[in-house]
Amino acid sequence: MMRSAVAGALTGAREATNLEVLFGGYAAPDSGQFTITHTVGAKTPALTGLVIRKGEGLGGLALAQKSPTVARDYLHDATISRHYDPAVEAESLRSVVAFPIVIEGAARGIVYGARRQTGTFAEPEVKSVRAAAEAVAFRVAVDEAVQKQVESAETAEYLRTVHSAPADREWEQVRVAFAELRELARTIEDTETQVGVQAVLDKLTPETVAEGPTLSAREIDVLALVALGLSNREIGGRLHLELETVKSYLRSAMRKLGAHNRVESVVLARGLGHLP
């Protein structure tokens, strides 16, 4: 699912510019290399599967420096190594720009834009390749954060099923994972990922009592963070909501639940199966 982010970003960048070829890929943290997994506009398979190592070639240089690099004439640029000349020559590439995919301060891959003629790149072309790299970085960061929380939630669910009386610390893990997964779910556009995250959220809560009140998704989001002890202002910051909006959701949830205060609203919501 995460690799589709590369394909989408490359296609979008090519549609936005007149660049002939775009390609790229990314890898796990601290690997020091990545594999080119996607190409758009390539005429040969020479680039696909190419392993780019830190410091080697134009992309490897951008990876090492964590900053963009440009070659007006790749095959005659004395500042880069010659490790990937055969692939570049097979694809007849000449001018190449490389933007690192930076995630949490680490360069994890590269998005390249290239032409089959020597020369400089126009500003819109450079911006488009940069935007593609940033789009991939955002999507990968979100997906990896989701995966981390899913693993945490599944661990917590396991603890809940194997112990007859889970410890408070274990329940706290469940509640933290539940709240963070709900936050991350709102940033995901991929339908398959959304379904997977929702399945995990369903595991973390008991079956909702049929005769209980129906809470909106945002009301549950707010209550999940109230359960972690966050203030209204902190909840607003986490959910990107105005303070008064948070208060409105909380008041609405309390009214539906028949609660008189924040603590009681969380207790009642748990009893009805809305929260773990």
What does this protein look like?
The chain is elongated, with a radius of gyration of 24 Å. With about 280 residues, the protein is α+β, with helices and mostly antiparallel strands. The chain folds into 2 domains: about 5-140, Beta-Lactamase (2-Layer Sandwich), CATH 3.30.450; about 145-270, Orthogonal Bundle (Arc Repressor Mutant, subunit A). The model is unreliable at about 160-165 (pLDDT under 50). Helix 7 packs across helix 10 (about 260-270). It has helices at about 5-15, 55-65, 85-90, 125-160, 170-185, 190-205, 215-225, 230-240, 245-255, 260-270; strands at about 20-25, 35, 40, 50-55, 70, 95-105, 105-115. Keywords: DNA-binding, Transcription, Transcription regulation. This is LuxR family GAF modulated transcriptional regulator. One of its GO terms (molecular function) is DNA binding. It comes from Leucobacter komagatae.
Structural class: alpha+beta
Radius of gyration: 24 Å
Order of helices and strands: HEEEEHEHEEHHHHHHH
What name is given to the CATH topology of the largest domain? Beta-Lactamase
Top-tier CATH class of the largest domain = Alpha Beta
The CATH fourth-level homologous superfamily of the largest domain: GAF domain
Shape: elongated
Mean pLDDT: 83
Number of DSSP strand runs: 7
Number of separate helices? 10
In the residues, how many domains can be counted? Answer: 2
Which architecture of the largest domain would the CATH scheme give at its second level? Answer: 2-Layer Sandwich
Distance between the termini: 28 Å
Strand order of the largest sheet: 3-1-7-6-5
Low-pLDDT residue spans? 162-166
Organism: Leucobacter komagatae
InterPro entries: GAF-like_dom_sf, Sig_transdc_resp-reg_C-effctor, Tscrpt_reg_LuxR_C, WH-like_DNA-bd_sf
GO molecular function: DNA binding
Protein name: LuxR family GAF modulated transcriptional regulator
